[in-house]
Amino acid sequence: MKEYRSILFAADQGWGGSKGTVDTKSFDEQVNRMARDGWDLNFIENLNQTAGSRSLLLVFSRPLAEKVTPVTPT
Question: Alpha-carbon distance 36 to 28, whole Å?
């Protein structure tokens, strides 16, 4: 089993860059932070193309922690 997590990342640098661009330093920091927590980046969708939003949708997954069933003595 896996668990999934979605994050919206702004694709709008504002003062420092043209609208529709990504601050790659912040993007790398976010993706690397997720990787350190065991998340794999599975998918990126440019929502400007599909929903008119200046955001990127990032979808991550990682193995679901298995619950350990305690063994009862017989």
Answer: 12
* 3-state SS assignment for residue 26: helix
Identity (one letter) of the amino acid at 18?
Answer: S
Summarize the confidence of residues 27-43 as an average pLDDT.
95
**In DSSP terms, which residues pair with 46 in a beta bridge?**
56
- Alpha-carbon distance of 12 to 52, in angstroms, equals 13
- Would you tell me how many other CB atoms lie within 10 Å of the CB of residue 6? 10
Cβ 53 vs Cβ 9: under 8 Å: no
pTM over 0.85: no
